[in-house]
């Protein structure tokens, strides 16, 4: 079971690299445009756990990692582990995300999907 999770998370890292490359090539190397629900000011938006839980589908997928909220909808179809990313859609994915199978670069890459903090 742990090996399967590790393999799936390894695929996640690979896919994040691919998506990052596609984003850079599709906008001429410019940074990603701010999405409509990203904070416009320096204070991050906050979401309750119930708000995040509403985003639990393939075409609307948010996850929580260490009390930060990420909109990974654009990544779902690219996820090398298939629908495994949907197992924690709208919920906390911290345990699945952190592990020895990840290169340190994945921790920077996930920030591209950051939309706010989890409200406690």
UniProtKB/TrEMBL annotation:
Residues 24-55 are annotated as: Disordered. Residues 1-15 form the signal peptide. The keyword Iron applies. InterPro entries: Cyt_B5-like_heme/steroid-bd (IPR001199), Cyt_B5-like_heme/steroid_sf (IPR036400), Cyt_B5_heme-BS (IPR018506), Cytochrome_b5 (IPR050668). Keywords: Heme, Iron, Metal-binding, Signal. GO terms for molecular function: heme binding; metal ion binding. Residues 30-44 have a biased composition (Basic and acidic residues). Residues 44-119 form the Cytochrome b5 heme-binding domain. One of its GO terms (cellular component) is membrane. Belongs to the cytochrome b5 family. This is Cytochrome b5 heme-binding domain-containing protein. It comes from Brassica carinata (Ethiopian mustard). The lineage of its organism: Eukaryota, Viridiplantae, Streptophyta, Embryophyta, Tracheophyta.
